[in-house]
Design brief:
Blueprint lengths: L1 H34 L11 H20 L11 H67 L3 H46 L35 H23 L8 E2 L5 H8 L3 E4 L2 E7 L4 H4 L1
Antiparallel strand pairs: 1-3, 2-3
Helix pairs in contact: 4-5
Length: 299
């Protein structure tokens, strides 16, 4: 029963306001007929006429202010409806603003993480350069108190020692690389060649379990069906890596000359590309080269 009374009161309020609007529209139409067409009056430059205009405006405002405003009765549901409408609009606008703000926060957070990473790299580079500058200063101080001939001999000796140290480090890295291929990568490469999962999807794989219709362990690639697929896959990766490194050195910084032409599409080549170590030519997937990691620093 309460809902029925509320609906009746709502309909009564709506009828009252519609009647009031019609009455106001009727009065407005009558005033328009009496007043004729309206025209915009510019402020007069004559002081007396300008004072008259202001008094007319003042009189109009006072007549409007003297009229009692038409407000709904205390029991009218109109204020509640207006409040509900306003609350819904504010809620909708708040939801949209929240979504927009959330996207902005995510974008700002990602940008902050990138800038923090760049700042960290910048600090590392700065620290390395400072250490290098300090070593050069110490060498200059030492060379200042040494005869030129002795300084040259000492420099040659240091360069030879540095060369030996570099050679030892290169040999250590090569051995570690070969051991990693032998112990881990070769089996996964052989499995991928045989139609199994790509390298990295499974850490413990058996290439013999993935012999498919593509051929018995893809032995046709080297015309040796008795070859061990694991050893063949490891050798292919080592040979391709060495060939890419030699081509990169021979190119002397010219990226267009650093490409190596592949005899076939192999798991080793795909692995190097996925690992961001090498990249295919933009218009020829048969050519591949090492990624120039130092190019960004040179620029």
């Amino acid at each position: 029963m309460g809902d029925s009374a509320y609906d009746e009161e709502l309909m009564s309020t709506l009828d009252d306001w519609e009647s009031a609007v019609q009455a106001e529209e009727t009065i407005l139409m009558q005033l328009r007929k009496l007043a004729g067409p309206l025209s915009v009056v510019e402020p007069s430059t004559d002081p007396a006429h300008r004072l008259h205009q202001l008094r007319v405006v003042q009189s109009a405002l006072e007549s409007l202010n003297a009229a009692d405003p038409r407000l709904p009765i205390p029991s009218s549901p109109l204020p509640a409806l207006l409040a509900l409408h306003t609350a819904q609009r504010v809620s909708h606008d708040t939801a949209k603003s929240t979504e927009t703000l959330r996207d902005q926060v995510q974008s700002t957070r990602a940008q902050l993480e990138r800038e923090q990473a760049d700042l960290h790299d910048g600090h590392l580079i700065t620290a390395g350069l400072e250490r290098r500058i300090e070593r050069l200063r110490e060498e200059d101080l030492q060379l200042a108190h040494i005869p030129p001939g002795q300084a040259v001999a000492d420099l040659i000796q240091r360069l030879r020692q540095r060369r030996k140290s570099y050679d030892r480090e290169v040999n250590r890295l090569i051995n570690a690389f070969n051991d990693f291929i032998k112990d881990h990568l070769a089996t996964m490469l052989a499995a991928e060649e045989a139609g199994g999962p790509i390298v990295g999807q499974l850490l413990d794989v058996d290439p013999d379990a993935f012999v498919t219709k593509r051929g018995k362990r893809n032995a046709a690639r080297d015309d040796d069906e008795d070859a061990d697929p694991v050893s063949a896959a490891g050798s292919e990766l080592r040979e391709l890596t060495e060939e890419l490194m030699n081509a990169s050195v021979a190119a002397e910084g010219n990226s267009a000359q650093a490409y190596v032409t592949l005899q076939r599409e192999s798991a080793a080549a795909r692995f190097l590309v996925r690992a961001k170590i090498a990249q295919f030519a933009p218009r020829d997937a048969r050519r591949i080269r090492l990624i120039d990691f130092g190019k960004r620093l040179d620029e």
